[in-house]
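Dear colleague,

Thank you for sharing your sequence with our group. We've completed the structure prediction you requested, and as agreed, I am returning the results in plain text so they can be pasted directly into your records. Please verify that the sequence below matches your submission; if there's any discrepancy, let me know and we will rerun it promptly.
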Amino acid sequence: MSSLAGIARLSAWNRRSTLVWVVISLALATALLWTLERLRHDVRVSFAQSVSGVDLIVGARSSPVQLMLFSVFHIGSAPQVLSMDSVRAVAQHRSVSWVVPLSLGDSHRGYPVLGTTPAYFQHFAYGDKQPLVVQSGAVFSGTLDGLYEAVIGAEVAHQLGYGLGQQITLGHGLHEHDHDHEDHADKPFQVVGILAPTGTPVDRTVHVSLQALEALHLDWAGGAPMPGGHIPADQARKFDLEPVEVTAALVGLKTRAAVFNVQRFVNQYEDEALMGVMPGVALGELWGVLGLGENALLAVSALVALVSLFSLMAVVLAGLNERRRELAVLRAVGAGPRHVLGLLALEGTWVICTGVLLGVLLAQVGMALGAPWLQNSLGIRLQIAAPLPTQWALAVTIVLAGMLASLGPAWRAYRMSLADGLSPRA
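Please find the predicted structure tokens below.
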């Protein structure tokens, strides 16, 4: 058997000019599947761990998915707001440990602006309850003296080249494509802190205090500045800047066992139509919607691999007629039909294993080189770690499928008779 494997390897090498393209196509298909599986796994993990340590997200009654989109991912806008009185009522529940209000609606050069309190940096976590880390500077003070202070995410700092002390101005509304909106240019902010990368929407967010957002909109009404009602930045500190309403609130409980009790209290709150959402459940629903694209990509990659396997079969079949005399000589020197079958099958196996191994190597190198770009450009944290069991399963599946595909030409060669090989038909 070892001698037959050596002959198969040398035979494949002798026909390398033809088989090299099959190897390349198999390598590319394997690399695509291998990379997509790692990317799919890491994106799902990162997505599921976008928020951690938060037991409930409270907002005006709407869709749980919609509430998660604008409160955690800062996508879209809240159809309604909730009053601070309701937030305080939730905070006073005996099972609630802390509440962090959130206010969204403004932006800076396409990046969302989140109004919150200093407690946000203390309680918000991601991943496996990893806390937010200030890479440089400090969080905003939340006082009137530090009214116009901002803390920016890692991606904002990297993409816009910002550092500590940078003066920035905010725009009214979410201008995703227009970076020149500076509706609040009369009230500039100073960057006092830059957060470490998290691989979550926090990286793409500008954080300011709730009082700062109130100061920005003192001279605004109905989404537009009031004519002749301009209030200078310094004068804004003389007004009552306590917010009346916010977009949503993050809630942490004293014990996880009370989550359904508090959720029922929120959902049945009489003074206002509220909704309490458990992040894990809502994220699962949201991923169920987004997972369709993931499955489509995986299906396309599998189709590419299937085409590569069929190309292997076509190449071997096409060259089989040219090798009929070669196979007949092998039969003449004592090789049986089973040896011919084994030779062709092993030849195909050599080609498949070479293509798969080359594809795995290309994928690993490509992911190692592309991980920083994915982190900085798309906010996707790609883990350079040991291959996943599902990745190995994909590679083994391609090898087994390729071995089955090579049995077709091998079976045809098996059925060739010695006389047919020595005297081929015209």
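Summary note from our side: The chain has a mean pLDDT of 79.

Kind regards,
the structure core
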